[in-house]
Every structure is written in structure tokens, then in C-alpha cells.
Amino acid sequence: MPDRDPLIRVTAMPADTNPYGGVFGGWLMSQMALGAGSLASRVGKGKAVVVSATDFAFPGAMAVGDELSVYCEIAATGTTSLTITAEGIARERNGEATVKVAQGTFKFVLLDENDRPREVAL
Predict the structure, then answer these.
(1) 121: left (phi over 0), alpha (psi -120 to 50) or beta
(2) pLDDT tens for each residue of 25-50
(3) For residue 40, what is the enclosing H or E element?
(4) Which family does the record assign (predicted)?
(5) CATH at 53
């Protein structure tokens, strides 16, 4: 397991599978977006919305019951945006074996109380 704290941790359930019985890539992307959004809101100190999601890859597979941990870090800061890389690591249900199952990049724009872009103040 990486030597860092996950932004979120969740267990894959039967409803999260695709027609072939594997965990659906869309579910993985949504969990990663939640983790990245948590970091964007915390660092940006307010409302942050996704404006793009790119560079996704699914190098491994996870099964129902496996635990997904989402790790994120800021890759770049713009005038009103934060670019965040996300990585999903699955841990087998009844053990300690882990595998990277997803990675991708999200761009968030920070918004003010009127939902207008505001500057990043780090």
C-alpha cells in the first residue's frame, strides 16, 4: 500500500459491476472524481467543479468486495483551476495484496458564491 493517506476508501459492491461481472470502469472514475473533488475543495477552500477528466487508464482489475483507496495530488495550479492526478488502488477482500486499478487526471475550476470562477489562493 502506498505510504500516503487515501482521500476516500470504499468497498466495491455487486451493483458496481459491468455485464461481465467485473467492477465497472465508470464506477472507478466516479470514486476517483469524488476523491479529487475532496482535495480540490479543501485546497481551494470552497466550491470546485470538474471541467475535464483525461488520461484514464485501467491497468488492473478488482472484484466485488475489494476495497478501493483513492490517492490524489495536485499536479498543476492555474489562475482559477487545479489539475489533480488520481490513482485507484484495490486491496483484496480477505488479504493484503494490492493492485493499481485506475489512474487519471481531473481539472477543477474554483467558483465563488455566485458560481463564477475565482482565483486560486494557496
Answers:
(1) beta
(2) 999 999 999 999 999 999 999 999 99
(3) helix 25-44
(4) Belongs to the acyl coenzyme A hydrolase family.
(5) 3.10.129.10
